[in-house]
Amino acid sequence: MTTATPAATAVDGAAKTGRPGRRGRPATGVGRPGFAWAAPAAVFFGLFALVPLVLVVVLSFARWNGLGSPEFAGLENWSRLLDDPVMVKSLWLSLLLTVLGVVVQTPISILLGVWAAGRQRNRAVLSAVYFVPLLLSITAVSVLWRAVLDPNFGIPSQARWLFGDGNLLGTQAGALGVLVFVSTWQFTPLHTLIYQGAARAVPEVLYQAAQIDGAGRVRQFFHITLPQLRNTIVTSMILMVVGGLTTFDTILILTQGGPGTDTTNSAYYMYQKAFKSFDFGAASAIALLLVLVATLVSLILVRLTGYDRMRSTMEGV
């Protein structure tokens, strides 16, 4: 018959009671970090996001020209916007630019991202060159393309057989095409980078099993890669939607809302109301409307795609 030692008794007691023994170290549970860890981010978000949003909501129901004190105006700003044909047109233009951006950028980003995730020769060098536009500011890119597309000294003036009179920004179709092209040129690298990381996370065993079954690269892309990128596609599209609805810098530098009001989207119209007409009440109403539209579109996108349920794409692996 064996006799338990004091140390063994202490360990056994700790195991049964869930408390440390007399001679052992206190057990430290691993839980979620305290609120103190999130306090800096919460304060930053509150000061630079929530507070301005609350002020915009208040100003949307007031009259204010930037001087003096705001005066309560009720629903006056909202009723004027609903009756403003330029506002209605700007909202549709915002949605159109957003849809065109998603339709054009998504397939290009997926294809380039999947390619960049491979091990092709010179892939790293080509990827680095392709990501250069992502490092430039929107203003620099817009000034660059405004010079390149100048009808008198730019590329269109040297290729009139292709561009006609060369004034691409002189028609609504041409101006919208330029805006979509410039946005695609600059922001596709960002979404390509997102897809590159997601494509590299796809388990190699899936492709090996597909090769054994005789599936080629095209079938592997449509039956393995795309399903595995489902959640990434939704994330990328939400970023495109928010970015498309708030496009401002490119329009300000390239078209200034022209010709006429043919490229005046809601963000640029908000700028005109605030800093040209000094109608900060109407501008705040437009800003709040943009927030509501962007939130609504994003929620619809999340709901329709099932992204809110976040089903795993790794089942069975």
From TrEMBL:
It is a multi-pass membrane protein. It comes from the Bacteria. GO terms for cellular component: plasma membrane. Signal peptide: none annotated. It is found in: Cell membrane. The chain crosses the membrane at residues 35-62, 91-116, 128-148, 168-187, 233-254, 280-302. PROSITE patterns: ABC_TM1 (PS50928). Keywords: Cell membrane, Membrane, Transmembrane, Transmembrane helix, Transport. Belongs to the binding-protein-dependent transport system permease family. This is ABC transporter. It comes from Streptomyces thermolilacinus SPC6.
